[in-house]
Amino acid sequence: MSSAMTPEAQPITAPHTSAHLEDRARTEQMGYWLYLMSDAILFVALFATYAVLHANSAGGPEASDIFEFSRTALNSALLLTSTLVLGFSGIGFAKGNKGAGFGWLAAAFALGALFVGLEVQEFAALVAQGASPQTSGFLSAYFALVATHGLHVTVGLIWMLTYVALLLYEGPTRRVLANGNRLAAFWHMIGIVWIGIYSVVYLPGILQ
């Protein structure tokens, strides 16, 4: 009886394992970019809805009545600075400097959390003065767009916490850093969407 192993019974070698992992990583990356594109389509639809309804105030408050330059400028500075320092975090981890990586990551999280806090305060103040989503088409479209963006920021903050857990558990391995790269892409998309919100929603209202 021959002792030769059949192809099915032969152990998987390192090259086979490496190729499988690389194929899996490419598939995950492709799936992630497809998700980001679908998210972009969602925001395009919300922007289009706002463009149609922004003039329908139904006799209620208009954009010029509720938007404040100082608040929106501060929110913009917080979120855009957060996207910048998250990039510095990735550079720190890639260079093996864990202290810089965790420090910049903590700063990005703090800035993002402040952004969400100010946005929640803004929504609460609007509702308290009678400017709720039920008041008019303009406010419905405004809350839908800005709150959806705020939800994405919140998801990004939760993602940062899970990323920290992975870094502490596994260290800055290739797989973990790839997760961080996807987080950075998501966070930068959020920043780009906010620039659109500021340009299309807040700035025209403030300048009215």
UniProtKB/TrEMBL annotation:
Compartments, as annotated in UniProt: Cell membrane
Name of a matching Pfam family: COX3
MF (Gene Ontology): cytochrome-c oxidase activity
Any one Gene Ontology cellular component term annotated for this protein: plasma membrane
Bilayer topology term: Multi-pass membrane protein
Record's keyword terms, sorted: Cell membrane, Membrane, Transmembrane, Transmembrane helix
Residues annotated as domain Heme-copper oxidase subunit III family profile: 1-206
Region of interest called Disordered, as start-end residue ranges on this chain: 1-20
InterPro entries from the UniProt entry: Cyt_c/ubiquinol_Oxase_su3 (IPR024791), Cyt_c_oxidase-like_su3 (IPR000298), Cyt_c_oxidase_su3-like_sf (IPR035973), Cyt_c_oxidase_su3_a-hlx (IPR013833)
Gene3D superfamilies the UniProt entry points to: Cytochrome c oxidase, subunit III, four-helix bundle
Statement: the UniProt record of this protein carries the keyword Ribonucleoprotein: no
Record's signal peptide: none
PROSITE patterns tied to this protein: COX3 (PS50253)
Top-rank taxon, per record: Bacteria
GO biological process: one example: aerobic electron transport chain
Main location: membrane
Segments traversing the membrane: 32-53, 73-94, 101-118, 138-171, 183-203
Keyword Transmembrane helix: yes
Family: Belongs to the cytochrome c oxidase subunit 3 family.
Reported function: Cytochrome bo(3) ubiquinol terminal oxidase is the component of the aerobic respiratory chain of E.coli that predominates when cells are grown at high aeration. Has proton pump activity across the membrane in addition to electron transfer, pumping 2 protons/electron.
The protein's assembly and partners: Heterooctamer of two A chains, two B chains, two C chains and two D chains.
Name of the protein in its database record: Cytochrome bo(3) ubiquinol oxidase subunit 3
Species this protein is from: Aquimixticola soesokkakensis
